[in-house]
Here is the input.
Amino acid sequence: MSAISIRTEIPGPASRALMRRREAAVPRGIAHSLPIFAAAANGARVTDVDGNVFLDFAGGIGVMNVGHASPTVVSALHAQADRFTHVGFSVLPYESYVSLAERLARVSPGRFPKKTLFVNSGAEAIENAVKIARHATGRPGVLCFEDGFHGRTLLALSLTSKVTPYKAGFAPFVSDVLRVPYAYCYRCAYRTQHPDCEFACVEAIEQAFARHADPQSIAALVVEPVLGEGGFVVPPAGYLSMLGSLCRRHGILLIADEIQTGFGRTGRLFACEHDGVEPDLLVTAKSLAAGMPLAAVIGRAELMDAPIPGGLGGTYGGNPLACAAAHAVLDLFESGELLRRSEAIGARIEARARRWAATCLLVGDIRRRGAMVGIELVTDRGTRAPAKRETGDVVRLACERGVILIAAGTFGNVIRFLTPLTITDDELDEGLEVLSGCLVAAAAQAAVR
Ligand SMILES: Cc1ncc(COP(=O)(O)O)c(C=O)c1O
Here is the structure.
């Protein structure tokens, strides 16, 4: 029996009515990928306020790796809500915060003593990781990447690359930020080819140290092991470890932004593990707590202890409900089954995407690490001109046909897959079949334009 059930036009009347109220009450700056209002969600299915059932290929932007309404998470939340919902860890500490820090230290890469700080969002965690790195090194600078995304608060936004809509109009930004090209091989900044390039993009960082900034002034390099918002760009094997060596050479701390790659998305709990890289500080959020607002900075104990008491914190950071959800998520990952499933889901999507590439000229590049799969659409395979409009068409058509999908990429031309890892093969195949039809329709529309 099919999972998708579309009973109304999309958006349906109830969603349209709510959208009118939303337009009057909520600023337009908060954009929506899709114009439907959610009413309920379970596993990989979302029901809207009109009773339509969709397959969720977005997971609230990579947050629902353990699936919507996981019974383990829901019962942990109920149990915690019955005990207490807030005392403020900086007023009265509680055990679940400490034990979560202990568990994350055990499961995160790096065989050294670690400590963990909890905050509320990915951006806040990035802010704190940089604050800690500055305090620990006494250096002001931060090195980051083109096409990187680290959040919308001002320091995180200063590290973020994409100009519109994220940065335009929000200047001035934080100073002492040095940005260099990422190993985005499909659009190599140096017009070279891997492996002949011998990592020209890493060599270029050394050159930037001669031309733009003294490496001795740089506290940290902030890097996503796979670019998320920037287009699911998977760097070649060896890239992250070369960045690690470069950091060690110059006394720069390596901060891995695992906010989107983390918690099983790539077939390992953290994507750094694929390269055997042990970052000094690792930032994670999103699927860490299955939708409860929780982010973590996990780092070398001596670095994490650099700021003095009171230098870190916040009213809600490590809220007990969020900690309870994260403990439940860790329980769910313990058997290793979700990690195996992540790889299997990714392989199934990739196999299908390769078939699309054989017949649909829009498909320019297919990239994957575990279940983090991106398909870059182009209007011309020779020039690789980004197919932004066609990508938008695919996303809109998919929604009308019952699949919640989101795009990524600096040029808005990458389809990204962030399904819950609990999705069944039947659900996945049903959603992929819908996407096949959407790609054909988008290509046909493009041909007559
Ligand atoms: C890699 C990465 N870093 C940082 C962030 C910001 O996280 P948040 O939206 O929780 O502030 C995101 C969000 O998409 C992200 O993908």
